[in-house]
Structures
1.
Amino acid sequence: MWDDVVHTCDNQRLFCRVRCVDEWCEREGVEKGYVMSLQTLWKLAGGWYAGRFERGYRRREPSEAREYFRAVGLRGAFWGLE
């Protein structure tokens, strides 16, 4: 993600169902990436930056990030989870 933030942001999209993701990928000629439900996205976003504007905030260490990802229901190598 951090290697190419513009690409990452340009390819984050909402779809009504997985079939629509597949159709869009085929039409645009792009490889399908990680697909999550809107509920999981909401959980991920809900606490990811918690405390960010407070004095002393520190970014999560990779192991802490992986635990957060697990806690919100993410799975797989894309998130560094096996």
2.
Amino acid sequence: MLIGRLDEASPFITKDGSEIREVAGPQTLPSQNQSLAEATVPVGGQTTAHFHRISEEIYAFTRGVGRIKVGDEIQDIRAGDTVVLPPGTEHKLWNTGDEPLVLLCCCAPAYSHEDTILTEPEPA
């Protein structure tokens, strides 16, 4: 049995600009059909609006407050909230609080840069 440890996962920046630490996925544990990572959006930060052609995502917020755009709808979110993001649906996060916005992100199939399509210019 292999066990992923969040505190030992190396962070990297995804195509949408968020920092993630993957604990399960094709590159970390032998998960072929999904991935699980912790993502962090810093205070005052935001992700670049994007969608995934084939991946469905589940965001489970564990710390902080912010806003999320899914399609044409924008809602406030906070720790304890969970949002499902269907494939092909544009989405974006903003951290509106005074601490990092932290979430667990499950992608099925597993996250890949190639499946991430940006729909706005990346921040300078």
3.
Amino acid sequence: MKVPLSFAPKDKIIARLKQDPAIDRETAITLPRMSFEYLGAYYNGDRKLPKINRYVRKGDDADHVFTQFVPVAYDFNFRLYVYAKNTEDNLKIVEQILPFFTPDYTPTVHLIPEINLTIDIPISLKSVYPEDNYEGDFTADRRAQIWTLDFNLQGYLYGPVIEKPLIKFVVTNFYTDTANTGDVVDRLTIQPGLTANGEPTSNSVLSIDPHLIWFDDDWGVVKTTTIAPNT
């Protein structure tokens, strides 16, 4: 049978169970049932990544890219409650959950579509313990056996994705004096080089237009030196 799962703390479910001890009303909660709650997030410095690293993906054209700084590592804690009227029902549910955690279950998640980011997110099962919530008269009060499972999700928090122009040309001027105030003697230009067949090249004559070269192409480096006319 399918067991319902809802977002609710344990105290809320227990309160609803006690409101109808004889199970006479149609609004009574049907057991077995599961609920979960979010307990909090904690920064994890052990999984910290270098701040200056970025994710990069192709932009809408060859002169732009989508970039995003690496995320901040956080651990997110969740708690799952399994409710049943007897031990057998509870065990049948719990035994279908525990084998997937050894002690981690690692799904592959497609997180950021803009940069096509897919990573593995480990989810650890930290503890499992039962509780028999049975108080009062045997005939009037409703019994609920509860199993509590604590999980830790090793997630990340991401910043914005930014589309930026791609730097393809680097120009360096060489001057006649060290103060960079005189006439330009030489000008060195560095740009990507790629033939029409997709081969890297350092020859500007054989290269296609640099504006048509994508950042992830296998391009070469073209160096061009221009001598000023007045030298």
